[in-house]
Amino acid sequence: MAHREQRLHSHPFDGEQYIAVAISTKEYDDSIPLTEDIWEVGGVPRQSFVSPWVVHSPRSEDFVAWQGCVTNAFVDSVVEVVETYLREV
């Protein structure tokens, strides 16, 4: 996902480890579509979706391919949905 220019908190391993959500070609109830208009650079070769319930923290060496960069507005919308999963009891 996009690297944010302005952050409220810095990640303790900035530049080494990241916070990411999964991308899938399967659509589920809470999937968020990766439409063409959200990409600033790059994209996906076929219809894909973000799975906001699948959060992970990959390290730089874990990346084997780069998808691109999405808009900050899209990142904000994904973060809002991720937050609902973190707050569910």
What does this structure look like?
The chain has 89 residues and is of the alpha+beta class. Helices cover 18% and strands 25% of the residues. The protein is built from one helix and five strands. It has one helix at residues 72-87; strands at residues 20-24, 32-33, 39-42, 49-56, 68-70. A three-stranded antiparallel sheet has the order 1-4-2. The protein is globular, with a radius of gyration of 13 Å. The termini are far apart.
Q: What is this structure's SSE topology?
A:
Layout: E1 20-24, E2 32-33, E3 39-42, E4 49-56, E5 68-70, H1 72-87
Antiparallel strand pairs: 1-4, 2-4, 3-5
Order the strands across the largest sheet as they lie in space: 1-4-2
Question: What oligomeric state best describes the polypeptide chains here?
Answer: single chain
The beta-strand count equals 5
Strand content: 15-25%
| SSE arrangement, N to C | EEEEEH
Distance between the termini: 27 Å
Number of helices: 1
Q: Give a short account of the largest sheet.
A: 3 strands, antiparallel
- The structure class reads alpha+beta
Mean pLDDT: 86
State the helical fraction: 10-25%
Radius of gyration: 13 Å
- Give the low-confidence spans: 1-6
Q: What would the principal axes of the Cα set say about the shape?
A: globular
